[in-house]
Amino acid sequence: MAEKIRRYTLKQPAKAQKQYRVRYEDELNQEQLDVVMAGEGPMLVIAGAGSGKTRALTYRVSRLIEDGVDPSDILLLTFTNKAAKEMLSRVEQLVTIDTRRMWGGTFHSIGNRLLRQHADTIGYRSTFTILDAEDAKEMMESAISSLGIATLEKRFPKGDVLIDIYSYLINTRTPLELHLENNYPHFGIYRDEMINVFRRYKERKREANAMDFDDLLVNWKLLLDDYPDVSAALQRRYRYILVDEYQDTNKLQAEVVDKMAEVRRNVMMVGDDAQSIYSFRGASFENIITFPLRFPEAKIYKLEINYRSTRQILSLANASIAQNRFQFRKELQAVRGDGPDPAVVGVDDVSEQASFIAQRILELRDEGESFGDIAVLYRSHYQSLELQMELSRRLIPYEIRSGIRFFEQAHIKDVIAYLKIVTNARDELSWKRVMKLYPKVGEKTAAEVWARIGTAQNPLDAFLGGSGVGGRVSERNGDREQSSDARPPTPHSRRGAGSSLKHLRDVLSVISSESMQHNPSESIRLIVEHGYADYARAKFANSQARLDDLEQLSQYALRYDDTNAFLDEVALANPIAGEDVAVVGPEDEKIVLSSVHQAKGLEWRIVFVIWLADGRFPSQRALRVPGGIVRVKPKELHEAFELTDALVQGRGTRDEGRVDLAIDEMPEEIPHPSSSSPESELPRPSSLVPDVEIVIPGEEEERRLFYVAVTRAKQELYLVFPVMARDRGGLDILMEPSRFIRELPGDSYEKWVIGSE
Asked: pTM for the full model?
């Protein structure tokens, strides 16, 4: 009898939809939600201007934590500590957990934290000092002097120039010969001497147990490349890696991230190739544009909904950036309502340009706009001079954005140097800086004192014990005595160096005590009150402003109960708000004058972009120099690369395993033409066999800069160009409107014609 069989299928119960604390569907648009809810694997998020990328980043971190990911398994890399803190604070608000266990900060701050843990692996002590730009310059100058070059070669580059060259080589992987040829041909004859100086500079850093900013990345990568056990631990340590502003990373930073993500491959890069404008700092457009080649399984997401600008402004921005051939194409869409058409304004000359802007600003104020909602943007700082004069004449208050950093001012660095001595007694630069603040102590005396104490196991103990100061001054028993007479003489004192150094000994004795090591604020106050205030009054014309800065520094230090932690923060800090601008005018509300580079990430209701003439914006240098080269296999090209006869030439596979790209145009005030690294400097995945060479025009980064400028505007946009200008000989020359204006569709703007009464 035949067996009867019935098939019965067991159905899996439907999974209940996970209930999250955060209502992601309600608080995010669909594009952001797709990013936040994405699964495992590499991701590239192309986040257009004003599209809420920070929101997408923070909500993704929150979602990961809600799904059970331990915060300590998440690494968030940003370009400012402020950005990291704001993101982590937002995450805490969303999921109400303590995010202090999460690793979030700049590349350099994370590198610092990791190297503190693994310093001994690479031959450093964990108490190493971080050299800021001024410290590094002084150490480079010391290296020059030690080789006898400074006095023999008067045209040899100074320390700060060498630091710029050295840092660029490190971060971009550019060979010295090529960099000198492209950017510093007048230094070419000093190539061998420069190599010797760089070698001595590295030795000096080692001897001082110090790292410059570049070392924080170089040594991080060294751990990943040369120490398999440490590398494996670091690669497994973080389950998810998220990188903000990826288009601004340099080659070294990209290599570090790629190596960190090599095992788990859960890396999310967030950036906008259309806002890649910092090649002059070493940022590599290649990093974001070739990400899909380095991570073939990567998913690409786009954030195109713009919450900042009107439809009219975005229409113009979209039309402009569409002219670039190399990009991830996107179309920004406005959420805000309509506004006035952008205005294209031709003026006779720079004087009329300044008059128009000043008059229009006053009209806008009368229409109810605030000065603080208005910005004037330009390609280079010198382009604002006429406008500054006109604004001053009309009593319009303004602030000028500059690169002055609070912690890099001389008086701040002087006081910080005291603290560096007591936390890292081998910090030669800080010793010499502090000693030279005292009367009768110059470079020679400071060097002699360091020669005596520098060989001791602990130079601070040797100095406090009397070495190098003309004999032992007093014995210390137990905790270091806190002398009430710790006041060095002023610069006008006639007492000798020995007396000055004894006063320094008294100050250091107090601030190096155990109790003061946990009170950096009080240490700063003591340094100022016991001598530095008198020094400042005798030295600086604006001494009161500098003393006010030091009071602010002491107040800032109140949040730290450990001097080492305070110094780490100082070394890695961004400019303090309010200290990086020059303010002219009595009112609280001021218009902003800024270069486009410094305006990135900011927004105003009303924006004027000036000097939009070919040769000025785009700059003449950008038009002369190729933007870079990328070599890839045709089958690996993706949407960011368009093959055209004008841009592609077939090449043989000259060197397997290499892909090169460099776009190195920079603001005119920083002389840095293009360069591209030879294959030997840039190891890439062996699967990439280049047989196509793509040359990127130099104007493409300039167009991205224009795109950044126009997308700063929320409501009104004015594009201004002078018809006439003067050359260096004082002759009037006819200017052609910027190609970025000429290529715009006629219906994307309104043309304004200037007349006079």
From this structure: 0.74
